[in-house]
C-alpha cells in the first residue's frame, strides 16, 4: 500500500533528523571524555543506525521487514540522589564540546525526536509504519531516560522532589472514577 503524502513528508523530516542525530553522535564519540557517557553513546548509535536504515527502506520500498530493537527500560540509577546542580554558562567561543554539552545536546535531540515520532505515529494510516514509529518513540524515550539519569548523577540536570504539601493538595484535587464493566 503506498504511503500517503503526509506520511511521506513526515518520513522525510524524520530521515533528516536521523542524519543529524547520527552525524552528531559521531562528533560526540570523537570528543567525549567520560567513559560512562561514551559507553551510552556507543550502545545507542547502533539503534539510531538501524532506525535510519528502516526509514530508508520505507522511503524506497514503502515497507520494511525489520523490527526496531526497542531496549528495555533502563534502571533508575540516579534514584533518590539529587546532586547539587553544577552551574553552567553558555560559551559562544566554544571550539570543542565538553561532556556536559554532549549529554545535553544528545538528550535534547532525543526529546525532540521522540515528540516527532509520537506526532508522526498519530497521523499515520499504515498500521506497519505506525507500529515502527511507535517503536521509534519508545526507543527515544528509553534512551532519553538513560541519558537523563547520567546527567542527574553528574549534576548536569536539575531535579528535585515535589514538595509534600503540593503532592497532598494534588491528591485531594482528584478522585477516582468507578470503573465501568466491559470497558477495556
From TrEMBL:
Its main location: other. InterPro entries: Ferritin-like, Spore_coat_CotF-like. Gene3D superfamilies: 1.20.1260.10. It comes from the Bacteria. It is found in: Spore coat. Pfam families: Coat_F (PF07875). Keywords: Capsid protein, Sporulation, Virion. One of its GO terms (biological process) is sporulation resulting in formation of a cellular spore. Signal peptide: none annotated. Belongs to the CotF family. This is Spore coat protein CotF. The lineage of its organism: Bacteria, Bacillati, Bacillota, Bacilli, Bacillales.
Amino acid at each position: 500500500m503506498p504511503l500517503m503524502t503526509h506520511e511521506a513528508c513526515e518520513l522525510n523530516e524524520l530521515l533528516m533528523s536521523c542524519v543529524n542525530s547520527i552525524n552528531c553522535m559521531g562528533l560526540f564519540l570523537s570528543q567525549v571524555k567520560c567513559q560512562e557517557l561514551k559507553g551510552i553513546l556507543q550502545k545507542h548509535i547502533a539503534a539510531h543506525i538501524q532506525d535510519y536504515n528502516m526509514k530508508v527502506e520505507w522511503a524506497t520500498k514503502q515497507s520494511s521487514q525489520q523490527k526496531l530493537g526497542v531496549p528495555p527500560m533502563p534502571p533508575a540509577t540516579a534514584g533518590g540522589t539529587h546532586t547539587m546542580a553544577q552551574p553552567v554558562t553558555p560559551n559562544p567561543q566554544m571550539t570543542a564540546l565538553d561532556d556536559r554539552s554532549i549529554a545535553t545536546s544528545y538528550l535534547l535531540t532525543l526529546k525532540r525526536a521522540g515528540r516527532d515520532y509520537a506526532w508522526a505515529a498519530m497521523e499515520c494510516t499504515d498500521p506497519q509504519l505506525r507500529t515502527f514509529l511507535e517503536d521509534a518513540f519508545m526507543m527515544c524515550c528509553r534512551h532519553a531516560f538513560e541519558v537523563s539519569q547520567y546527567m542527574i548523577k553528574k549534576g548536569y540536570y536539575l531535579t528535585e522532589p515535589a514538595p509534600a504539601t503540593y503532592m497532598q493538595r494534588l491528591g485531594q484535587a482528584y478522585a477516582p472514577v468507578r470503573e465501568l464493566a466491559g470497558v477495556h
